[in-house]
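Proteins fold reproducibly. Take a tokenised chain:

. . .
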Amino acid sequence: MAEHDFDEDTLRALADEGNETALDRLVDLADDRGDLDQLSELLDEGSEHAGRLLTRRAVENRDLRELQRLSDAGSSDAETELERLLSARHP
């Protein structure tokens, strides 16, 4: 699949109108830039994709507080990963 450069303002307008694919593309752009603030804002807008990406980063960093924050924001993935990490037994 070819990579396309889309105008971020256009993607934002489409996402604001309820287009989930445009919202996911905004998430991908923020993730590519490493823009955690933007990812968090997109999560607050209801993007499950943003929640998954933020959860992945928090798990990689073993950031329990971030996982709790994401879980509180409604990310079921973060809740699952938080419970998994807290339940893991270490020798």
About this structure: The chain has one domain: 8-87. Residues 20 and 47 are 8 Å apart (CA to CA).
